[in-house]
């Protein structure tokens, strides 16, 4: 009644609840993937029915793109790696469906069939939400046949050259409509390798097929692509300052900037840049 009041009046409230939870989790995990967020401990008890994120202990945002990235100190086999998160969410929802089988239908076989059919919709819900999010990040409108290949090529380049996940997409927003004096442009602090040039040419050709005005597209891309995230080394520095020196200034500065993550502030460039080698955080812990 609190999170899904409309489901209480459904013909089959338990099934309606299951379907609503599946859709909520598909949207949530698609957002994780779109922001390079790695939860780190996706046990079934760490997934809320309402589709919000909980248990932030070992979570982290990816810096250099690698789909196999893992941060949690207890995840030795990469079960909860970035690339595996949608599949783990799917598995967790199957566990929820199994628990609901006794109340889905009086007939056991029909109950199992209803549960399976519901769980099988997760992939489509996730794909739709993720595709819509990627299109927004890349400035793409109506889907076209070559979009999937274009996106796959981008991810391949990002992995091969270990470009920063967040700033790669943000830089693309700059390049979607280059104009002198753009106050949101981050070109002075982050650029893409020359190896991206052929892909950029294909992407620009794809953008040229859109009816949207370049200015409107770029503004939408800026809204979809943050420049400031809670980078691991910044979180560690804020924690250390607070616990070791009772200095909460780094924490408050970081929180203030994260309150407007898509607004570029040149004076805060240190909070946007990827970590240097000595600043990298390779492991996170449940106690964080």
TrEMBL record:
Family in the record: Belongs to the SELO family.
Any matching Pfam family: SelO
UniProt lineage: Bacteria, Pseudomonadati, Pseudomonadota, Gammaproteobacteria, Cellvibrionales
Keywords per UniProt: ATP-binding, Magnesium, Metal-binding, Nucleotide-binding, Nucleotidyltransferase, Transferase
Essential cofactor(s): Mg(2+)
Gene Ontology molecular function terms on file: ATP binding; metal ion binding; nucleotidyltransferase activity
InterPro entries (UniProt xref): SelO (IPR003846)
Name used for this protein in its record: YdiU family protein
